[in-house]
Amino acid sequence: MIYFELFITYFKIGLFSFGGGLAMLPLIEHEMMIHQWMTHAEFMNIVAISQMTPGAIAVNCATYIGLKVGGVPGGIIATAGLATPSVLVILALTSILAKIKEHPMKRAFFFGIKPVTIGLIAYAGIMIGQNTFLLDPKDWLSFDYLKILLTVICFVVLYKYKVNSILMIGIAGVVGLLLFGLIGMV
Length: 186
Known about the structure:
about 80% helix, membrane, transmembrane, cell membrane, mainly alpha, transmembrane helix, 2 domains
């Protein structure tokens, strides 16, 4: 029964998600809470792991959550459930999209979807940020303010200088080790 629930849940997420993995995170979190497959803290840990491992974040989340809930078969089934709608839609729409390439209805549809996608990604960013930065207004030298500073610096460097994001992750990890890990501040 759990395998069927995993497949249907992730099929639904895959079917109604536009904008990639980050846009799927609010839907994945909602479903995890409904099914009580994990706590919010566990979900945020899986999101962090999914961001650091190779592959699409939503696929990684589906695999990890499926593994937690149903072992190896659960991981495979959840991932298959997430991917199946995209494969079916792409197969069905490939010839249609080529024929309606410049059709006004197609442009209107994507005109409406793009802002929602940005909103879902922004929500995912805020959700992750709230769990990353637990600000204490009395302690201006807290670790959380340093995390915000690191976030802003990374954003500016990525946006302005187009530095490779993998390089930025490595540099940020080294900075974290130097500031907190090696001197025992965390």
